[in-house]
Amino acid sequence: MKKVFTLADKAWAGSNLLYKWQKTVGNFIAVAGQDNSVKIFDRHGQKWTELNLPGRCVGMDWDKNGDILAVIAAKSRSIFLWDARVNKSSRIKSGMKDQMSLILWSKTSPMFAVGTVKGNLFIYNQQTSHKIPVLGKHTKKITCGCWSAQNLLALGSEDNTVSISNQKGDTIRRTTLCGEPNEINFSVMKTDERSSPADSTVSVSVGKKILMLFNVNDPENGVELTFQRRYGNIVSYHWYGDGNILVGFSNGYTVVISTHIREIGKELYPAHNHKDSLNSVAISSSLNKAASCGDNSIMIHDLSELKDNTNVVRFDDETKGLDHLSWTDDGQLLAISTQKGTLHGFLTTLPILGDSFGTRLEYLTSPLEVTEKGQYYDKAASLYTRCENWSKVGDLLPQVSSPKIHLKHAKAKEADGKYEDAARAYESAKDWDNVIRVLLVHLNNPEDAVRIVMETPSIDRAKMVARFFLRLNDESSAIHFLFLCKYNDEAFQLAAQRGKMEVYVDFIGSEGTQEDYQNIAFYFEGGRKHLQAGKFFQKCGLYSRALRNFLKCSNTDDNLAVEMAIETVRQAKDSSLTNQLIDYLRGESDDKPKDAKYLFRLYMVLQQHKEAAQTAIIIAREEQCAGHYCNAHEVLFSMYMELRAQKAKIPKDMTTDLMIYHSYKLAKLHRDREEYLKAGHMLLRLSNYISRFPKHVVPILAGAVIECHRSGLRNSAYRLASMLMRPEYRDEIDKKYRWRIEWCVRRPGKDLEEEKTPCPFCGCKLPQNELQCYSCKNNVPYCIATGRHMLKEDWSECPHCEFPALYSEFTLLLKTEGVCPMCSETVRVQQLKKISDCSQCLLTVFFRAQ
Q1: Helices marked H in 459-587 — which ranges?
Q2: How many CA atoms lie within 13 A of 575 on its CB side?
Q3: Across the strands, what pairs with 91?
Q4: Residue 262 burial (CB < 10 Å; 0-12/13-18/19+)?
Q5: 562: Cβ–Cβ under 8 A, 6 or more apart, which residues?
Q6: Which residues contact 448 (CB under 8 A, 6 or more apart)?
Q7: Which residues, other chains included, contact 257 with Cβ-Cβ below 8 Å and sequence gap of 6+?
Q8: For residues 377 and 396, is the Cβ–Cβ distance under 8 A?
Q9: How many Å apart are CA 181 and CA 164, to the nearest integer?
């Protein structure tokens, strides 16, 4: 064997390497150590590319064609992919919540499986992008596995079980083992009839002591093969030939066993090739050879005669010992990793140079043709380059790995004006600056230039693309692009120079740093854009400066500025800033008091509920004094609900005011529905609080007289009519109602006796519109549909605002009105539920009233 390369890296020193040859062609080998990367080398040991990961690599595998490498890493829930065909990386989010531990590509389909440390499974189809998460496949970490040619998936776990699943993740078999599974394979047992279906046998190393074989369809009747104690632990095993298995043991032994039913368990070729220890065994089916390593040496064995060693390579300088062997699929190259963190590659067989093309038996006479046919593509391309035969160089480029050759070809194509070919060649040579230059200057193709800068970050390349956009007067795209490349300082400077800071702000959103936000804030402050400055001072925690800017805002920004100032004070939790804002809202700093709703909002965010409630009452009474009674109701109700949501104590004055405004709404509602007795009682209630309606004293009293008279409340009508006949009110009575009011004054009568119903607290009989119990002295909750006091046996609540209502009355109202009279939300009759036990509701009302 001839050594082809030795790979070493400071980051690998002293660690066991994880590596995988590219399947089928074996042109690449992917290697990972303890650092957060996977490095990919060609078969000559030249570094091709590197995948940077968020944590160390814990697993990798190539797809069946060797086109795509899939990698999983610690501290990540994503799978990282590298496409060898186009040298492009990507990632797939698994959506799994625990750490991944194993990844396996299918042998026949474009799909892979990922196992996790908690026993969950994730299957992904690369062709369709279909994801299948499977929770609870095992109860502990999934440690080993294998796909069959029929797309069955065998998985082994630390829970001492093996599961067999189909490609959809459904478990079709499960078997419990006597120890932890270490290595699983599918194969075919040797039979006389040759009728055994392909890949029907599962083999698994159990506890590194037992080799267990079982049929997929009959896992409970497996065969357990045990070995002599002197062999040590099972290191690895491989199927080969006609149902044979080569097993390597830690004490330096290798044994071949047959799986023929008559010979099963029989040791055919026991050998002690390594005196002290054995670290790994590997088989090349194409060469019909086996390799083993141990005692600082590699031995190559012919599988037809295992006792003979056809080649021995010693590693006297590897003081820590060897680790793991792996062959390329074609058997040409053998890799061996060592325990001090190096990787050696050996050429085990030369490619044949003198074969034929198809059916034409042509001899390869030209040195160039011989070199090319022998798959020494870099050498052939280099010779063609010297001859300036660029056409032949172009034909070979897909197989050429040398960046220098790609670069020479790129320069030649650019000189010929073939810019698309030049760009592709520069990209293959990884000369990214020239790729971007050609794309922008010659091809006017910013899309691909942007893609390359995003994939290969560089401030110089990013500035090249930004300058391209600026030449087109597209400052927004230039700023956006620099930001996407995470060059925030450069993006900020460009936005400041071009007066496009709002564009930069839109792009940065919530992804900026404290320094970013501070720079933006100072920029806006310098331009006297106080609202924007305040926003960004708040974002970076400079609350005093934020508040100062908000309070300087112009009238056009006033509403939003005050809201932002309130939020700033909430975040700051600084009493001096709080007092400063309160003075501003009260007008003590500029003699211009602000809308009292902001003071309410401030007290709410500060959780000063008593002050918030007092402010709410003041706001509602201002609306009331202006004659806007429905507005007063809406304001007080919304603030009442906010206080209730905070579980704050609600003052009696607030509850009383809401009852008065709601009675006003109900009076109008009952009158429109021609329920005159209900309307009359609500107007009588309002007359007791007539001072709250200074702009509508006469209309309210006049309406009360009319509704009381026609509903049979003659004495109440007489009493209110007499009040209206006073000199201060008489001239304000509408002429069309005056004669009726005068008629009521001349003809007094008696009120219909009001029906009495029990107090829900103590059961004392009360007039149904009375809201204070004579006996228990409690304030009795009122029905939002009628205004009457509530009854225990007829209790319901609005499903939205949860205010109480008489079930029977609310149902009737909803059939025609369809909305709650308190909160104005739509309510269907079917939503209403009769509450059989209202004790909890009464308890809540009682405590709110305290």
Answers
A1: 459-471, 475-484, 488-498, 501-508, 514-526, 530-539, 543-550, 558-572, 575-586
A2: 1
A3: 80
A4: exposed
A5: 550, 585, 594, 598
A6: 423, 439
A7: 211, 225, 244, 245, 247, 264, 265, 266, 267, 268
A8: yes
A9: 14
Average pLDDT, 10 consecutive residues per value, the chain (850 residues): 89 91 92 94 91 95 94 94 90 92 95 96 92 93 95 96 94 93 88 59 94 88 90 94 91 90 80 90 91 91 76 83 92 92 87 42 52 69 76 80 86 88 89 90 88 83 82 80 75 81 79 84 87 88 89 74 87 85 78 75 77 77 78 85 84 88 92 90 88 82 86 86 83 78 81 90 94 91 95 94 95 93 94 90 65
What's the Rg (C-alpha) of the chain?
43
Count of other CB atoms within 10 angstroms of residue 595: 14
- 819, amino acid identity: V
Roughly what angle, to the nearest 10 degrees, separates helices 543-550 and 514-526? 30
**Each residue of 133-162: b (16+ CB within 10 Å) or e?**
ebeebbeebbbbbbbbeebbbbbbbbbbbb
Amino acid sitting at position 292: S
Residue 197 is predicted with a pLDDT of 54
Compute the distance between CA of residue 270 and CA of residue 283 in angstroms, rounded to an integer. Answer: 17
C-alpha 679/C-alpha 670 separation (Å) is 5
DSSP sequence for 767-799: ETT--B-TTT-PBPPB-TTTSSBP-GGGEEE-T
Alpha carbon 594 to chain centroid distance? Answer: 43
Residue 307: both structure tokens together = 């006792």
Burial class (CB in 10 A: 0-12, 13-18, 19+), 644: middle
Strand partners, 234: 249
CA distances from 454 to 92, 450, 489 (A): 17, 6, 17
- The position carrying tokens 């319901």 is 796
197-218: b or e for each residue (b if 16 or more CB lie within 10 Å)? eebbbbbbbbebbbbbbbbbee
End-to-end CA distance of the chain: 95
Q: What is the pLDDT of residue 363?
A: 35
Backbone angles phi, psi at 178, to 5 degrees: -90, 5
Q: Could you tell me the two tokens for 670? A: 């009952």
Residue 493: strand pairing partners: none
Whether residue 463 contacts residue 478, with contact meaning beta carbons closer than 8 Å, is answered with no
Beta carbons within 8 Å of 390's beta carbon, 6+ residues apart: 384, 409, 412, 413
Could you identify the residue written with the tokens 């040195």? 367
Q: Alpha-carbon dihedral of residues 784, 789, 790, 791, nearest 10 degrees?
A: -150
Q: Is 829 helix (H, G, I), strand (E, B) or coil?
A: helix
- Cα-Cα-Cα-Cα torsion 136, 142, 146, 152, nearest 10 degrees, comes to 0
Q: Phi and psi of 202, rounded to 5°?
A: -110, 130
Can you tell me the distance from the alpha carbon of 401 to that of 43, in angstroms, rounded to the nearest whole number?
10
Residue 836: Cβ-neighbour burial (10 angstroms; 0-12, 13-18, 19+): exposed
Structure tokens at 36: 């957060």
Q: What is the pTM of this model?
A: 0.47
d(CA 575, CA 567): 14
| Cβ count within 10 A of residue 368 | 15
Across-strand partners of 121? 115, 134
621 phi and psi, to 5 degrees? -70, -30
3-state secondary structure 200-266: CEEEEEECCCEEEEEECCEEEEEEEEECCHHHCCEEEEEEECCCEEEEEECCCEEEEEECCCCCCCC
- Give the rounded distance of the alpha carbon of 816 from its chain centre: 47
